[in-house]
Amino acid sequence: MPEAPAPHHTRALRDAAGLAAAGLVPAAAVPGLEAVQARYSIAVTPAMARLIDPTDAADPIAAQYIPRAEELVTAPHELLDPTADEAFTPVPGVVHRYPDRALLKPLLACPVYCRFCFRREVVGPDGGLLTEAELDAALAWFERTPGVREAILTGGDPLMLSPRRLGAILARLAAIPHIEVLRIHTRVPVADPGRVTAALAAAMGTETALYLCLHANHAREFSSAAATALARLTQAGVVLLGQSVLLRGVNDSAHALEDLFRTMLRHRVKPYYLHQLDHAPGTARFEVPPEEGRALLRQLRHRVTGLAWPTYVQERPGGAGKVPLGPVWEVG
Question: Can you state the angle between helices 132-143 and 163-174, rounded to 10 degrees?
Fold first, then answer.
């Protein structure tokens, strides 16, 4: 579908009434969605709103960002903290689950709020921004933990930070002798590409190896503006990886996954992870069973180059970390 004309709004839509005014939900749905927004944050950027076809009830972009009343129904297997971040938090803003790497969460704000997010109980527009003292303590933790060789900035979305603040965080991490790799997890280049300014790209310039892991789930998220943002990053020397979540109604077909991975490669994004859905509350409608995911990947094996092949992974409960799900191949 071609990109729709720009909607009348210029700021992110943050409530049910705004979504209705933009024509993205029917007015009759507003009361039910107001109950959702009381519990979970809503944000749809103009860039994403332009990609939504409001006449298509099965639009894969809308499915990711437009709230639905089902979000208030928690299935028995769903967990408030499916990745068990809290149990692995030595200081505020740090998650240390694996021996050689740790997460740094400098803020909990995002440009958009995905309806399947495993941190949806904590992310929101108030930002959850670490104070200067908390950020200093988090960075000091990295400095005194020599077993950690990789620092992963996540959140929230680290590219919501100003170039100055992002650059200062990266510079301090890069100055730690035992930190060999820096990684940033973000949706900004597709969800709010105008944020990827020359200054923001320059802030990621570092002697330490830096990888930016882009979260995108459908080929249509790669708009012309997103292409410009990604080109700016690659021209600045940033290495791009891609991570996606296997989602019912978004990318649960071999055709959709092939389009997604091929589109990533055209934009110099190497598909890295395809995630099995984490069991966050109210997300059951997105569930694709692992056996179906394996079957989809088997269909792709001889249709796409190995460059387009991600590792299909699932987060084990209780914070036990990721494991690859396959598929398993018979040899002989």
Answer: 20
Instruction: Please give the average per-residue pLDDT across 255-277, as a whole number.
Output: 98
pTM here? 0.93
Domains recognised in the chain with CATH numbers: 16-72 (no CATH), 86-326 (3.20.20.70)
Would the pLDDT of 57 be above 50? yes
Bridge partners (DSSP) listed for residue 211: 183, 239
- Give me the phi and psi of 176, to 5 degrees please: -80, 120
Q: Tell me the C-alpha distance between 275 and 292, whole Å.
A: 13
Q: pLDDT at position 6, please? A: 37
> 12 and 43 in contact (C-beta within 8 Å)?
yes
The answer to whether 62 and 15 are in contact (CB under 8 A) is no
Which residues participate in the annotated binding site?
110, 114, 117
Helix or strand (DSSP H, E) at 324: strand 321-326
Q: What is the mean pLDDT of residues 108-132?
A: 88
At 204, the pLDDT band (50, 70, 90 cuts) reads very high
Buried b / exposed e along 298-310 (16+ C-beta atoms within 10 A): ebbeeebeeebeb
Annotated binding site for [4Fe-4S] cluster: 110, 114, 117
